[in-house]
Each structure stands twice: as structure tokens, then as C-alpha cells.
Hints:
Layout: H1 2-20, H2 23-34, H3 37-88, H4 101-114, H5 119-122, H6 134-182, H7 187-213, H8 218-231, H9 240-270, H10 273-276, H11 279-327
Helix pairs in contact: 1-7, 2-7, 2-8, 3-6, 3-9, 3-11, 4-6, 6-9, 6-11, 7-8, 8-11, 9-11
Amino acid sequence: xxxxxxxxxxxxxxxxxxxxxxxxxxxxxxxxxxxxxxxxxxxxxxxxxxxxxxxxxxxxxxxxxxxxxxxxxxxxxxxxxxxxxxxxxxxxxxxxxxxxxxxxxxxxxxxxxxxxxxxxxxxxxxxxxxxxxxxxxxxxxxxxxxxxxxxxxxxxxxxxxxxxxxxxxxxxxxxxxxxxxxxxxxxxxxxxxxxxxxxxxxxxxxxxxxxxxxxxxxxxxxxxxxxxxxxxxxxxxxxxxxxxxxxxxxxxxxxxxxxxxxxxxxxxxxxxxxxxxxxxxxxxxxxxxxxxxxxxxxxxxxxxxxxxxxxxxxxxxxxxxxxxxxxxx
Length: 329
């Protein structure tokens, strides 16, 4: 019974709409409010693409910093082991002290293999002990010292590289935070979409009245149907996802920037000559730097994902906008 009572109310209300706006004017109103939305969304999509690329750079260099830090830690460990051997087989005056030539050979061979790719760069040599003479013992100890110097040089260069990569990752995350932080649907844009939907609803109501009183041609009714069908899809399009993804990318990039900056500073301090003299302190700072590099990389990757999904969300809304604008032609 309720459904039967609704129709008279609509019939009584709709003549007023016809007096206020013709079907042609209603379509023109939709054209005014709904045009240009796809262009603005394309700008958001393009900037999300830039944000994705920037975040990807942060992910790559952050990962590079973490990998470099791991190699540096292994190099430092080998250097410490070699120093222990030097201390073990050297007297106070630097002379050989009960050297186990087989153990020394095994150690130096393993170290040479570990640095195989750097042999030419650091001019490393691999000796094979053939006797237990004092002269050969001295040569073995001298060789160990040469290898340790090479390891320390390599470690220093790796530390500098990690610091540089961390600084680059920090810069990328800062840029990513700025891009994603501004790449949103602002209030004016949201208002336009709301006005577009309002004008589509008005067109739908006007079309019903025009059909009832015969004030529009069949071609105009068909055109109005086409516009309402295409533009009314904004109702089922989650525009807010675009902003949600931008917010997620901004937060992730912010975390990446903060940890990247901390990692850059920590890595720089860990690689100073003064810190390197304190093996335990250097080890702790290097570990902290590697952890921060890992966190920065994870944050950059998260930002990359958010930016990529923002592109996807924008594409869905752009499809609706383009269909709407095509119907308005």
C-alpha cells in the first residue's frame, strides 16, 4: 500500500522541476559540473607514477645500503679474526711465536678466497707455506698484516658507500613524502564531484518529468539516459581510496626518511677513524646502521606499493570520468 502512495507525491512534486529547468538545461548543467574531472584525475595518476618511481629508487638504494652493510660486517669479522691470529703468533717485539703454519695457511687461504674479487684492487697475494723457517714465518706474519690492511681498506670503502646510499634513500623518501602528501583530491575537487553527482540526480528527475509531460524529444530523452547511466557511476566509485593511498604512502615515506636520516648519521659515525679504533663500538654502530637500512628499505617498499595502488584507484575513477565526459559530448 505504501508503494501506491509514493507515486502521487512524485507526480505532484516533479512539475515544479519542469518549471525550473528544461531537460536541455539540465544536461548543460551536468556538462558544466562534470567536465574536466578526468583531466584532474590524470594529473593525480601521473604524480602517483612519479611517486612510485621515487619510492622505487628509495627501495633500491636502501636495499643496496643494507646489502653493503652486511658485506662490511663480514669483512670486519674477517679482519678481527686475522688480527687475533697476528696477535697469537707474534711476540711483543714482533717476532714469530710458535706459529702453526698449517693453521696460518688455512686462514690466509680462506681470507684470500673471501677477497678474491678484490685481489687486483688491493694487490693481495696468497702464499703457500713450504717450510717452517724463521724467514718464512716472518713472511707469513707480514702477509697476514698486508691482508688485514686490505680488509680494513675494503671495510672503510664499504662504510662510505653505505653512508652514501643511506643518504640517497633518505632524499628519495623525503621527496616521496612531499609528492604523495600533496597528491590528493582536495576540497575543491571533492566539491566538484559532489556537484557533478547532484546535477546528475537533477537531470534524472527532470528526465522523468519530461517523459511524463512530453516536453522533450525522444532523442533528448535518450541522451539524458546515456548521461545519467554514465555519470551516475561516481556513486559506486570509491574516490576516497585515492586519498587513503596517498596518506599511506606519505606515512611510509616519512618513516623511511626518518630512519634513513638516522641510518646515514649512524653509518657515518661508525666509519670514522676514531670509532674504528674501538672494535666493539664500531660493531654495534654497524649493526644499528644495517638495521636502519633494512627499515628504510621496507618503508620505501611500502610507499611504492601505496603509490602503485593509488594509480590503480585513480584509474578506476578516471574510467568513470571519461565515460561520463564521453556521454556529455
